[in-house]
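Sequence design from tokenized structure. All designs in this work follow the same two-part layout: the structure record, then the generated sequence. An example of the structure record is given first.
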């Protein structure tokens, strides 16, 4: 709701209207998580989680996957998108 409220507020107050969107990332396999040794083989755990809990099962998510969503929302291709929460979670919320 914060994203929608801010989109409404800033869309009306600024010229040109300011777009407000948010990105809702799922679990991302990062080197920091791997180095933290949360699990002995963290990357294997992430791959297994991707295979069992998400719709897009081909690999664990990585930081560039989230960056691509942010890049899209900040590009001219998304100039008509505002007030939206973009879930980048391999379909986890759908299941």
């Amino acid at each position: 709701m914060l994203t929608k409220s801010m989109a409404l507020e800033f869309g009306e107050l600024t010229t040109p209207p300011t777009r407000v969107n948010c990105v809702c990332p799922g679990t991302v396999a990062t080197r920091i998580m791997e180095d933290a040794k949360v699990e002995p083989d963290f990357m294997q755990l992430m791959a297994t989680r991707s295979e069992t809990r998400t719709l897009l099962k081909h690999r664990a998510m990585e930081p560039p996957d989230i960056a691509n969503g942010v890049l899209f929302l900040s590009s001219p291709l998304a100039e008509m998108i505002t007030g939206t929460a973009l879930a980048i979670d391999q379909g986890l919320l759908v299941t």
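The chain has a mean pLDDT of 84. We note this feature because it recurs in several other targets discussed in the main text.
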